[in-house]
Amino acid sequence: MGKSTFIDAFGTQLTGQGHRVAVLAVDPSSSRTGGSILGDKTRMERLAVDPAAFVRPSPSAGTLGGVAKATRESMVVMEAAGYDVILVETVGVGQSETAVANMVDSFLLLSLARTGDQLQGIKKGVLELADVIAVNKADGPHQRDAQAAARELAGALRLMHGKDAFWTPPVLSCSARESTGLDTVWERLEQHRTLLDSTGRLAAKRRDQQVDWTWSMVRDELLGRLHADPAVRALAPGLEQQVRKGELTATLAAERILGAFGEN
Amino acid sequence: MGKSTFIDAFGTQLTGQGHRVAVLAVDPSSSRTGGSILGDKTRMERLAVDPAAFVRPSPSAGTLGGVAKATRESMVVMEAAGYDVILVETVGVGQSETAVANMVDSFLLLSLARTGDQLQGIKKGVLELADVIAVNKADGPHQRDAQAAARELAGALRLMHGKDAFWTPPVLSCSARESTGLDTVWERLEQHRTLLDSTGRLAAKRRDQQVDWTWSMVRDELLGRLHADPAVRALAPGLEQQVRKGELTATLAAERILGAFGEN
């Protein structure tokens, strides 16, 4: 709920400034239940009825590869349709953060007020992807905590990036509920993108993302072919049965599947 | 630091009860810096010098598939060497939680005191993997928060699992620093495993894990062959260059790489 409230307030502020905003999601659904448990993240009340905004519902299921591909393709379509700001959200399950970082110009990490060693709750790998960090819910009784968390995070990032870094991600505090600090979040995102652009890094980044995407498609297609291969499909159920019964080791079964795939 | 303090205290308690404890890790290192920023997680002071314990340092680098394979193989070795408790820790980056869930009998989720909508900070996908949940740092001024967080989590889990579930993960609070509540964590883990065992589900789970492992090995090996393939290696740099220059789309480049791989 925190995140969709943020996107709702942030997107509304951007359409208020004349932007056309599209919201896409990379959210491979849970493989176990497929259901939503801790909140309805599609609750973007204002943005959903804003004529300058388009909110695409998350695909209800799919592999990360498939969902990421659909999102990339939607980005191209939305850009062509005149949306100048495309927000791609991720629930942060599995490798979806990395997938999203590989398709956007700037990565905004949204955090909650945390202090002390609770900083560890933020995954190091995700922190490294962030270009701008916003500590949300800096309102009412949480304002002090949010500001303390922001200071602490800023310190960690300075250590992480060093003095001479091209860009040290700013850590801002904001409140989506009260719509405060959101303008600064956007300014810093724009500043990051302008810096990327003016130094030629944006073009380089996009080129790298295209190469990365090439290999993603190769891997997804190859694994798709494996699972669709007639020889593999004919052989696999029997091999799985033997592995279950303990008549065949996983290693040997894997070799036989690969052998069958290699035959044609 | 929170997690290694927990493992240190928990493992020490188990060796005190006569168990032999091995600690392994599934921690594919950060692809960007490879370094540790927010804490030294190998700090297990007591366990490191405990003759009844073995702590394997995390591999310093590698893909998730490679690290998971090494850990699975170590588990077999440690079991054969007489370690009756094997703790496999994960930093929770990328898909490592799922990889760990696919190799253990019981999955313990360690959380910190959080209340209110901060529950959303715990990934739904991870919550679904948990067999037992422990809210750590229930000490000093955080005790009340930890207990409130535990109650709230327990409520969410009851909703998630329903009344007639085979097993509803208990949510416990504990303090690794003060070594309180750790005995209950172990009791509940044992209870979970005993229930699995007595109902035949442990055997079924292990069989499923073997099948899952089979396919993991197939996928890893296939992708390894792709990247090692002479035709692919000969063609790829030129194609990447063309993609970078915008002379070739990612989709077409992907098709050509797959074509080259299919040739032999």
User: SS-based structural class of chain A?
Assistant: mainly alpha
The biggest beta sheet of chain A reads: 3 strands, parallel
Quaternary organisation of the protein chains: homodimer
Number of strands of chain A: 6
Measured between the Cα atoms of the first and last residue of chain A, the distance is: 50 Å
> Which chains share the greatest interface?
A-B, 60 and 60 residues
- Biggest β-sheet: strands ordered side by side in the sheet of chain A: 2-1-3
Radius of gyration of chain A: 22 Å
Name the helix and strand elements of chain A from N-terminus to C-terminus, one letter apiece: HEHEHEHEHEHEHHHH
Strand content of chain A: 5-15%
Low-confidence stretches of chain A: 30-41
The number of helical elements of chain A comes to 10
* Apparent shape of chain A: elongated
Mean residue pLDDT of chain A: 83
Helical percentage of chain A: 40-55%
Description:
- 2 copies of one chain form a homodimer.
- Chain A is mainly alpha-helical.
- Chain A is 53% helix and 10% strand.
- Chain A has 10 helices and 6 strands, in the order H-E-H-E-H-E-H-E-H-E-H-E-H-H-H-H.
- In chain A, the strands form 2 sheets. Chain A has a 3-stranded parallel beta sheet, sandwiched between helices. Chain A has a 3-stranded parallel beta sheet with strand order 4-5-6, sandwiched between helices.
- The interface between A and B is large, with 60 and 60 residues.
